[in-house]
Design goal:
Elements lengths: L1 E5 L4 H12 L3 E5 L16 E2 L6 H10 L4 E4 L6 H6 L1 H22 L3 E7 L22 H20 L2 E7 L1 E3 L17 H9 L6 E4 L11 E2 L1 E3 H10 L10 E6 L5 E2 H12 L5 E4 L14 H7 L8 H14 L8
Parallel strand pairs: 1-2, 1-4, 2-3, 4-5, 5-6, 6-11, 7-10, 8-13
Antiparallel strand pairs: 9-12
Helix pairs in contact: 1-7, 2-4, 4-5, 6-8, 6-10, 8-10
This protein binds uridine-5'-diphosphate (UDP).
Length: 330
């Protein structure tokens, strides 16, 4: 398949590009490089730096590259920022995505893989989460993703678009060969921050809340390896052959891991002590979020290779320790 990977220079997108190549597909990357890293994509992969609002340019790329499927990873994903600047999130995560979809439908490209999120569930009353549970996001980021899920349903029935929306839990880790990894600016994610402390780049990490109703008082999350996520995106291709397919899948390991357990895993993997300070709860953080991914397992034959935190952290550590300045050359 010829696959347009929108946001293919970002964290999850760039890993997906490499998994596509490994599975025998031909990825083409479209990324405006606002957050993506050009160096995260090998030079032999066709690369276009274009904004999604430029429909005529995107249409040309769809035709020239004979695109069969579009994967869309280009979204803003800072929860706090989405609260203070929701316009930015609606413009990028909704409006820009609508430009892309209008262009696809106009060009007759009707297979779409969409990055959604467990943030669409809000604060659930039951765990683990299954796809049919109520969705009530508590921040604009989650709301923009839910809005797009709903738009996609309408497009499937009106235009015969086939799509899969994957609700990610906490994407983590890096390519096993250490070639690419996670680098956000600013970095807000727990694992890279804890690794920074182990590397001596930060003095300590803040633990946001130690009074949650969880075994050690810190938040529980479901960390899922970025290559496992990517493999699910490819496993769904067969199902997208059915016109109008509207598919939703949780992607997580189902293993809840606390903030303190992440810190201890980094200490174990790196052999370094990690200093942390306890801080108040971060606004908008549910106490626990973990997935029931039975649907992806039974329908797609998806089986995450990584199911526990330490080996995931080990891949992240390989990337960070071998690239102390990230994608920037020393
Ligand atoms: N977290 C923390 N300190 C930090 C960053 C994150 O304690 O400096 C916690 C956060 O409250 C959450 C978990 O780590 O419970 C994962 O947060 P992250 O931002 O990595 O991902 P999110 O769950 O927000 O998507």
């Amino acid at each position: 398949m010829n696959v347009l990977v929108v946001g293919g220079a970002g964290y999850i997108g760039s890993h997906c590009v490499r998994q596509l190549i490994a599975a025998g597909h031909r990825p083409v990357v479209l990324d405006n490089l606002v957050f993506g890293h050009r160096a995260a994509v090998d030079s032999e992969v066709p690369f276009y730096s274009v904004n999604l609002g430029n429909e005529s340019e995107v249409g040309k790329i769809l035709r020239k590259e004979k695109i069969d499927i579009v994967m869309h990873f280009a979204a803003y994903a800072f929860v706090g920022e989405s609260v203070t600047d929701p316009l930015k999130y609606y413009f990028n995560n909704v409006a820009a995505t609508l430009h892309l979809l209008r262009c696809m439908i106009g060009s007759g490209v009707k297979k779409f893989v969409f990055s959604s999120t467990c943030a669409t569930y809000g604060i659930p009353d039951k765990m683990p989460l299954v796809e049919s549970m109520p969705q009530a996001p508590i921040n604009p980021y989650g709301q923009t993703k839910l809005d797009m899920e709903n738009a996609l349903k309408s497009f499937a029935s009106a235009y015969g678009l086939s799509f899969a929306a994957f609700r990610y839990f906490n994407a983590a880790g890096a390519a096993e060969d250490g070639r690419i990894g996670e680098q956000h600016n600013p970095e807000t994610h727990l694992i890279p921050l804890v690794i920074d402390v182990a590397m001596g780049k930060r003095e300590n990490v803040q633990v946001f809340g130690t009074d949650y109703p969880t075994p050690d008082g810190t938040c529980l999350r479901d960390y899922v390896h970025v290559d496992d996520l990517s493999r699910a995106h490819i496993a769904v291709f067969d199902k997208l052959q059915t016109p109008g397919a509207a598919l939703f899948y949780n992607l997580g390991t189902g293993t809840p891991t606390s903030v303190l357990e992440v810190i201890h895993a980094v200490e174990k993997v790196t052999g370094k002590k990690v200093a942390y300070v306890t801080s108040p709860r971060r606004a908008g953080d549910p106490p626990a979020l973990y997935a029931d991914s039975t649907k992806a397992k039974t329908e797609l034959g998806w089986e995450p290779k990584y199911t526990t935190i330490e080996p995931i952290v080990a891949t992240a550590w390989k990337w960070h320790s071998e690239h102390p300045t990230g994608f920037k050359k020393n």
